[in-house]
Amino acid sequence: MFLSRTDRQLAALLQGCALLAATIVLLILLFLIKESWPVLQHVALTRFVIDASWHPVQGLYQLTPMLSATLYSTLGAVVLATPLGIASALFSRYFAPPFIAGCYRRLIELLAGIPSVVYGFWGLITLAPLIGRLHPPGVSLLTGILVLTLMILPTVALTADAALAAVPLAYVRGAAALGLSRWGLISGVALPAARSGIIAGTLLAAGRAIGETMAVLMVVGNVVQQPQSLLDSVRTLTANIALEMAYATGVHRAALFVSGLALMVMVLVLVSTAELLSRKRHYG
Amino acid sequence: MSHFINNKSEQVDKSNTDDAYTLGPLQVGLPCCMPEPLIRVDNLSLHYGLKPALEDVSLDIYKGCITALIGPSGCGKTSFLSVLNRLTDLIPDCRISGNVHYDTMDLRHPALDVQRLRRDIGMIFQKPVPFPLSIRRNIELPLREHGMSKQAGLNDVVQQVLQDVGLWEEVKNRLESPALALSGGQQQRLCIARALALQPKVLLMDEPCSALDPISSGVVEDLIQRLRGKYTVVIVTHNLAQARRIANYAGFFWIKDQRAGCLIEFGQCKQIFEAPVHELTAAYVNGSRG
Ligand SMILES: Nc1ncnc2c1ncn2[C@@H]1O[C@H](COP(=O)(O)OP(=O)(O)O)[C@@H](O)[C@H]1O
Ligand SMILES: [Mg+2]
Predict the structure, then answer these.
(1) If you take atom 6 of ligand 1, which residue's CA is the nearest one?
(2) Which of B185-197 are b and which e, b meaning 16 or more Cβ less than 10 Å from the residue's Cβ?
(3) Which entry of A25, A143, A280, B147 is 20 to 30 Å from A6 by CA?
(4) Can you give the pLDDT at residue A146?
(5) Residues of B in Cβ contact (< 8 Å) with A171
(6) Residues sharing a CB contact under 8 Å with residue B239, sequence separation 6 or more, in sequence order
(7) Helix (H) / strand (E) containing A194
(8) What percent of chain A has pLDDT over 90?
(9) Distance, in angstroms, between A190 CA and closest chain B CA?
(10) Are residues B203 and B234 in contact, defined by beta-carbon separation less than 8 angstroms?
(11) pLDDT 10s digits, A130-149
């Protein structure tokens, strides 16, 4: 391919940026492995599953309760936020009058900008007591899911909205010319055309949910236990690191870095699944 | 649709000889051109915001005939077609005045069932718009929308319309593959098949060949010839030779005073091309203007 001089300079610059980004990710991974090495060296990987509990100072390293908590809270939030977010995007794109749609979009953007600690605070003060009435203590997996849902909803809504906005006008005219109703256009043409964009947005939101620390820490109770119901208190991987890092030393500290490594692996799995999902039957 | 063709076959034959030169060896559809208007347009004007796009257009579209609309770009041909299937509804600041009747229906009536109307009056665009779905789903989607849901029936229609447009042999083994992977000419024929699947009475075609290579363009033209008699076709084309080959009636649009498009002349295709009344028409069809 022929490239002009400015093209070549631009290509070099962009390649540099891409390389830098990749290097940083790799360095973080290496750093995590290095810091967790004191534990990984002596402890078999299976011990993180089969140990009786999480008491790293006593040499018990069970991570599964926290892994489950992270997994369930993320999954729950994504399952709730995806349909709501898509519905919100459909409303602003296809049903609301232009003025209302504009205001609504600003509102969602505002929602995306609220700091997570505020969501957490609200969850603790308002939501937890409500759920506590159902089943004490109120700080629970469910509270975490609901707060996370609120937090990632704007991400799903805004990316779905952008994906729907990118659906060519020709499709809209073509669908109308075939006598399709608005819902026919949405379900038959617009959503399939916007599919990969919506999946990408949901993935972004899921990443945010996995990584969210503060808000979740404030509302889930942080008891290290395998959750038996939605109303149980749990502790997520991120909360685990945040709570213990201040005083952790030696193997304990190294074990916390293993938590970080586990988070990283989860995100990797998530990204690859999403990649596979959007590749399958993609007609765009 | 065929009942009225048979009833009036004598009349058909007569007008057929009148227009004999337009009906080349390609013509295999039923003969047409009963001078019986299906769509009547009276004093139609159209504005986008404050900008006029069409001024005082009056013409009749005859049942079973091919009507060609010619004229330079920007003279409102696309806008005119969009009025006929109410696609102008999609443009917020589009204002229309005048009378447009389809059969006995007032096309501008606010309570008109627009979905039902668009099923009767199909439209083909300049750039083919297959949806990002499989070939089969492209045809099934509007059928399902209009209440057809039995898979066996759907399969029959899909095969039938694909055969109608000569695409069946080319795609019968890959109905599940993406429609966007087809060539431009195949995509356009798929779009025509999709429109035919709804059994429309009228087909509006907005420069259906201008985005295609000459071979595909020839195939699509061939196909349009076959639609004569069974469907009423209104086609916008910049290819005057094509208009001359396929049309029974022709209308010539022009931009008056650098302002709005208007209809300069309308009549039998033969007359427009061989004995135009207006000097602008003469200049345009002889290629010296526009
Ligand atoms: N959606 C629209 N909004 C505003 N102006 C438009 C719109 N569509 C077409 N026009 C204007 O109306 C005039 C006629 O356009 P069009 O009907 O597309 O003409 P043609 O198909 O003959 O080229 C042009 O001047 C064009 O700029
Ligand atoms: Mg046009």
Answers:
(1) B48
(2) bbbbbbbbbbbbb
(3) A25
(4) 97
(5) 129, 131
(6) B209, B210, B217
(7) helix A191-211
(8) 81
(9) 9
(10) yes
(11) 999 988 889 999 999 999 99
Q: What angle separates helix A64-90 from helix A237-244, to the nearest 10 degrees?
A: 120
Residues with C-beta atoms within 5 A of ion ligand 2: B 78
Q: Which of residues 152-211 of B touch A (CB under 8 A)?
A: 178-180, 191, 194-195, 198
Cis bond before residue A137 (omega within 30° of 0): yes
Lowest mean pLDDT among A88-97, B26-35, B162-171: B26-35
Could you read off the pLDDT of A198-229 as tens digits, one per residue?
A: 998 999 899 999 999 999 999 999 999 999 99
What SS3 state is found at B7?
Answer: helix
Q: Give Dmax (Cα) for chain A.
A: 71
> Nearest Cβ partner of A181 from B90, B115, B133?
B115
Secondary-structure breakdown of chain B: helix, strand, coil percentages, each rounded to the nearest 5? 40, 25, 35
What's the start-to-end Cα distance of chain A, in Å?
25
The amino acid at A29:
L
pLDDT in tens, B178-223: 999 999 999 999 999 999 999 999 999 999 999 888 888 998 898 8
Report the Cα A46 to chain-centroid distance in Å: 27
Task: Tell me the average pLDDT across A83-111.
Answer: 95
- Which residues make beta-bridge pairs with B231? B228
Question: Looking at ligand 1, which residue's alpha carbon is closest to its atom 18?
Answer: B78
Distance A216 CA to ligand 2 centre (A): 56
| Tokens linked to B121 | 């009056």
C-alpha span between A78 and A87 (Å, rounded): 14
Q: Rounded distance, CA A251 to CA A58, Å?
A: 10
Q: What is the 3-state secondary structure (H, E, C) of B142-157?
A: HHHHCCCCCHHHHHHH
